[in-house]
Specification:
Largest sheet: 6 strands, mixed
Shape: globular
CATH topology of the largest domain: Dipeptide-binding Protein, domain 3
Radius of gyration: 24 Å
Strand content: 15-25%
Distance between the termini: 41 Å
CATH architecture of the largest domain: Roll
Structural class: alpha+beta
Number of strands: 19
Number of helices: 16
CATH superfamily of the largest domain: Dipeptide-binding Protein, Domain 3
Length: 509
């Protein structure tokens, strides 16, 4: 058995205010870290949510069976102390015997088995269901601190999925008395993590208190208050006056200008999120449209000045990419075909494809407007008449599901998972509307990488699949993202290489 060891103010204005304001950074004095989030926080149960904000909160309130070391990608214990594959589709897991829920009750294997079986259950409608259903048959209790997972098929990422997505709930949480209640933990969360909910006003404020019964290393800071502040200018004002200790998703110019003052520290770290264009190579929107021509798709790739977008629009650690994954992810082969920025080459390819006079391209986007406009400008410069449709994500999702989008600027963070599987399957599975290639053979090849536990074989499969995506220019990969934060000068907030903010690791200087 494998055992584990623990192991948008200008700089000048900001400087002027710095001398005018004597901020009372209350954080250390009352041991309270005050954080801001732009997105509304309405549901505390990560089993029923997806956004990055909810991942951050789940890291604070919840615990999973395993953890992944963000530095080494090594599997670490959490609620579980060890695991063993009895055979390729049978996994035995041993649990700690000292894990308590926030209400003081002891966690048992029955709670773990119930959680996994419920999420797989069709009645659950959980956001995590897709993750579990791809590999779980059933989970059963086998002893006082043990349980067995019966896998539906060989799946090499099962431990990683357990570490990243499934939050353990008490037996019967969602269907007590036979009545299904998917919102049972939405506001009154009972979990097992390092912080527990003291109070919650949905869309306004969440107050978390250190869980003194937490089984792991207890966090250094006693209280964390998370406020919903949609307006970045209001967040900025709060940071300058000492009302906030932590901001994220900070625009680069604001992060640099305010970070240059004594009022805040600018931190920039890696992020597994990547930006890209998805092109309707299959012809869902137009069976004979220009995007079905590989030379047109190659021209689009050559037309985009990705290095400048990365440097000037994203900044920090952002870099241009040319493969359909993040270079830090396992299996992300960066030796595939590249299309360097070359407008003349782009025009020549368009002419060869019969579009020397260009064509009209509806381009959809939902975030990072400056980047979307830069993409549109680069394509316009080589003769493509871009109709930029900047919409809400919900509108883009609906149009994409209806196969009404010929091209869109998308991003994907892989849930902080440093494995190509986290981006490849969802974008090239034939059942996903994100897949605009219509290539069954490619989808089968990508799926086959999840059906072998041989890591070298997985690398070879991803290399082949990514090579095909690049050769046929099914995407136009753009850049990696950089995470920009503003924090109180008195806060020590460590950055991890996977780009996931872990507020539970913060401390006062």
């Amino acid at each position: 058995m494998q055992q584990f060891r623990w192991r948008h103010l200008g700089a000048a204005s900001a400087l002027a205010l710095a001398t005018a304001i004597s901020p009372a950074f209350a954080g250390p004095s009352d041991d309270t870290l005050r954080a801001a989030m732009s997105e509304e926080i309405l549901n505390l149960d990560y089993n029923y949510t997806t956004k990055r904000e909810y991942i951050i909160l789940a890291q604070l309130t919840d615990a999973t069976l395993f953890n992944i070391d963000p530095e080494t990608q090594e599997v670490l214990p959490s609620i579980a102390t060890s695991y063993e594959f009895f055979d390729e589709t049978t996994l035995d897991v041993t649990l700690r015997d000292d894990v308590k829920f926030h209400d003081g009750s002891k966690l048992t294997p029955a709670d773990v088995a119930y959680t996994y079986n419920w999420i797989k259950d069709e009645r659950s409608e959980s956001n995590a269901a897709g993750v579990v259903r791809r590999w779980l048959d059933t989970a059963e209790v086998t002893g006082e601190n043990t349980l067995r997972f019966h896998l539906a098929s060989v799946y090499p990422l099962v431990i990683r999925d357990m570490a990243a997505r499934i939050m353990i709930r008490k037996d019967g949480t969602y269907d007590a008395g036979g009545e299904v209640d998917r919102d049972a933990m939405a506001q009154d969360l009972i979990a097992t993590g390092p912080y527990k909910v003291a109070s919650f006003e949905p869309g306004t404020e969440l107050v978390l208190e250190r869980n003194e019964d937490y089984f792991g290393e207890k966090p250094a800071i006693g209280t964390i208050v998370v406020r919903n502040i949609p307006d970045i200018g209001t967040q900025q004002a709060e940071m300058m006056s000492g009302g906030l200790d932590w901001m994220f998703k900070v625009p680069l110019d604001l992060a640099q200008s305010l970070g240059a003052t004594p009022l805040a520290t600018h931190l920039s770290g890696n992020d597994l999120r990547v930006g890209f264009l998805v092109l309707d190579s299959h012809g869902y929107t137009d069976p004979e449209g220009p995007l079905t021509n590989v030379k047109v798709r190659q021209a689009i790739n050559h037309a985009l000045n990705k290095p400048e977008m990365a440097e000037y629009l994203i900044g920090g650690s952002s870099e241009a990419i040319h493969t359909a994954c993040h270079p830090a992810q396992f299996g992300c082969d960066t030796s595939v075909t590249d299309y360097p920025y070359d407008p003349e080459k782009a025009r020549a390819l368009l002419a060869e494809a019969g579009y020397e006079d260009g064509f009209t391209l509806p381009l959809w986007a939902y975030r990072d407007k400056a980047a979307a406009e830069a993409i549109a400008a680069d394509l316009t410069a080589v003769g493509i008449d871009v109709d930029l449709r900047y919409v809400k994500l919900q509108s883009l999702n609906q149009a994409r599901a209806a196969r009404e989008i010929p091209a869109y600027f998308g991003t994907w963070g892989s849930g902080g998972t440093a494995d190509t599987a986290a981006i490849a399957r969802i974008h090239f599975d034939m059942e996903s509307d994100r897949n605009m290639s219509g290539d069954q053979a490619l989808a089968d090849e990508i799926l086959s990488a999840e059906q072998t536990v041989d890591q070298e074989e997985r690398k070879e499969i991803y290399s082949s699949a990514l090579g095909k995506i690049a050769d046929e220019a099914l995407w136009a990969p753009l850049f990696t993202y950089s995470a920009n934060y503003l924090v109180s000068p008195e806060l020590d907030f460590p950055l991890d290489p996977d780009g996931l903010p872990r507020l539970q690791n913060s401390s006062w200087k």
